[in-house]
Specification:
About 40% of the residues lie in helices and about 25% in strands. The chain is α+β, with helices and mostly antiparallel strands and about 290 residues long. A 6-stranded antiparallel β-barrel has the order 1-2-5-4-3-12. A 6-stranded antiparallel barrel has the order 6-7-8-11-10-9. Strand 4 and strand 5 form a beta hairpin. Helix 1 (about 1-30) packs antiparallel against helix 2.
Length: about 290
């Protein structure tokens, strides 16, 4: 079709000339001068219209090819920009992680997030470090920005992490200015907003106050940033406190895994207290 249009575009004058000559010959034969002049005038108009239409079609086809070339070039440039952006973000994340390890020596294992499952409430992460790299269940997972979650399952080279933004996750936290303690949980409504529970109305809490993991945590090291208070609402017995989390989970690529060395004496005392509480409960419960 394109070749045919090009043929008519380049030879339309000759074709129309042959057509006019044939018609003119017929009219001359029959001595119809008026019809001949009228035919020549109409022929000139027709030739101009056809030439314009053919020129427009050729221009359209030419522009279409140019647009296709530009689209391919733009796609290649976009892919290159995305690749360079990913490389830059990876480099920045790696630099922050390395700096944190240097400033905080100890049993800290670097890892990379290789899989994530984000839905309404049951969010999970997979990292590329497992038992062969020293990862154990209930280790704390963090970044230089703050707490990410804790390890809940380990294989040879991978580990499953329950992040802070999980319906079953909770951690003991303390405020930096007023030393107010509470339990941090994620409500599932907004990804970056969690709630601090069990803070009595007698406590002093301030907006913009920062929160860190407390000594009461069973898995996390003390002093890991968690977030900052953005809203405080008094209710019947406790405050309803909203906390903006320190970690941006949508941009999470590299993490650190740290093991908390529990004090055996403290663990034994806590276990004894729990056993005593259970015994007291059984004694106070009447038999049916």
């Amino acid at each position: 079709m394109t070749k045919l249009i090009k043929f008519f575009s380049s030879n339309n004058a000759y074709l129309l000339l042959l057509f006019y000559c044939g018609v003119a010959g017929i009219l001359i034969k029959y001595q119809d001068v008026y019809s001949l002049q009228n035919l020549l005038s109409r022929g000139t108009e027709l030739r101009a219209v056809l030439s314009q239409q053919i020129s427009n079609i050729s221009l359209y086809l030419s522009l279409q090819k140019e647009n296709e070339k530009l689209t391919l070039q733009n796609s290649a440039l976009l892919a290159k920009v995305i690749q360079q952006g990913n490389t830059l973000r990876e480099s920045v994340s790696t630099y922050h992680t390395a700096s944190f390890i240097t400033d905080n020596p100890g049993s800290i294992i670097p890892a990379r997030v290789v899989e994530r499952r984000f839905n309404t409430r049951e969010n999970l992460l997979i990292i590329n470090a497992g038992s062969k790299q020293g990862i154990e269940k209930d280790m704390a997972v963090l970044t230089p920005d703050g707490l990410v979650g804790r390890v809940i399952q380990v294989s040879n080279n991978y580990a499953k992490v329950m992040p802070v933004i999980h319906s079953e996750f909770n951690v003991s936290v303390v405020s930096d200015s007023n030393n107010t303690h509470g339990i941090l949980r994620w409500g599932g409504n907004q990804e970056q907003i969690a709630q601090m529970h069990y803070v009595p109305l007698s406590s002093s809490v301030l907006v913009e106050e920062k929160l860190y993991t407390a000594d009461f945590s069973t898995f996390a090291l003390r002093g890991i940033p968690v977030g900052k208070i953005v809203k405080v609402v008094p209710e019947k017995r406790f405050y309803r406190i909203h906390v903006q989390l320190s970690v941006d989970f949508s941009a999470l690529t590299h993490v650190l895994v740290a093991k908390k060395i529990a004090d055996p004496e403290k663990v034994e005392l806590m276990r004894g207290a729990a056993d005593n509480s259970e015994s007291s409960l059984q004694e106070s419960t009447p038999l049916n």
